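User: quick one
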Amino acid sequence: MNTTPASAETPVSLSDALAATPAFSPLYQQIKGLILQGLQSGEWKPGEVIPSEMELAARYRVSQGTVRKAIDELAGEHLLVRRQGKGTFVATHSEQHVQYRFLKLQPDSGDLTSEGPAQREIIDCKRQRASSEVARALALRTGDAVLQVRRVLSFSGQPTILEDLWLPGGPFKGLTADHLTKYHGPMYALFETEFGVRMVRAEEKIRAVLPDAAQCQWLQVTPGTPLLSVERVAYTYNDTPMELRRGLYRTDTHHYHNHLS
Amino acid sequence: MNTTPASAETPVSLSDALAATPAFSPLYQQIKGLILQGLQSGEWKPGEVIPSEMELAARYRVSQGTVRKAIDELAGEHLLVRRQGKGTFVATHSEQHVQYRFLKLQPDSGDLTSEGPAQREIIDCKRQRASSEVARALALRTGDAVLQVRRVLSFSGQPTILEDLWLPGGPFKGLTADHLTKYHGPMYALFETEFGVRMVRAEEKIRAVLPDAAQCQWLQVTPGTPLLSVERVAYTYNDTPMELRRGLYRTDTHHYHNHLS
DNA sequence: CAGTGGTCTAGACCACTGG
DNA sequence: CAGTGGTCTAGACCACTGC
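Assistant: Done. Structure below.
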């Protein structure tokens, strides 16, 4: 817990000092790191309260304000959720008002919740060997075990999204079509409760494409209907990629909504 | 500057108290509002420094910490930019590293800056009367004066984006094709310097579409090539809509990149 | 070196929650 | 009512910038 890591105790050569940034890291960043450890290690699980600011301040031997700033940043990254009067909680995908946090598709009028719950139909779930492409996205080696899932999401009875998912075989050992079919709720919530994998952020690449015959079938659109192709890589703590997802979105009744600021 | 607005001075009926939220607003939020006023009124212009935290604290008769928290939020919304040792500056679209802040299109390999500067070709710029649709988006009345601009953006010589813009006639009085053609740089930078209009945030609706014959010409694609349709409404301070923009993006060599967190 | 933003502390008080 | 997060203050010191 050193405020100035590059102090006398750790001699640094002149060239080092010039090459690498001094890497000064404020106390609250170090506290943030410690809290992050607690989250990764599973000491505090999604949905649970973490200790109060005063307790954490005592544990880490810093002032409440320093803990506060660390928690502020983690809350800003949606890893923690503060609730005045109640405490600070580990964020989870299992809550109503954050169900569709990573799904930016909206009906042209109203919002997703107004369309009622999504119907999820699992088409397929099988073990496979990672193609070079999948391996690269998931930071695996080509040929490593992966799970592939295909499903259709419908809103108000209309098939709207066709998705293919690839998951690393290790962390998701034991996942079957049965799991997915029986579980009603967001997939990321299931990942949390059943496999201890919490998705924290994601990157999406979006393109306009034309569907092939099979895809037309699943989405019940005519060939030649342009669709949105959404390729997502989702990450857990530590920037570890844990899911590759390729979605085809209908955009005749819905649109992808994005807020820029 | 009242910490508890619903105090004895302003009697509130029981029904009011139950209906409307108490609307307690912390001091730093009020300071934030005052700074925002300074930005809107043009007291501090894009690119300029605002007074130091100590000065503002003295002016508003609060502690430095309170000003700090206000500025923190404004910096988080990208209205201000803090530079240690130098001061706090009004954000601007005229800087290299934030040039494409609202443009999420990326080449499939590398980034936009690696492709060199964008070539901007103004196709058209004319005064018009707002259609009901345009009027609604810009919070005008149908028939009000608007400017319509059409242009093509090319990267590495390849036409990639075809855009139509609608701007309210009032704030942009005097804008001509000449302005746009002669100005080399981001359009939002020109809006700042020439018309005092700073774009602060935007909303985008994205769909997959098929281009018509004219659009194919401009983008040099064959009919039947699916394109990304990006409809953007951009806002100044105060959530005032100031631009409606409809873009068609080629996504065979580029993709729309989005970060979810 | 003075002036800026950035960090850290300690303590007081407020707003919200639940028993 | 006690316990939580939220606000506000005052003061000390650190890191960075430019003269």
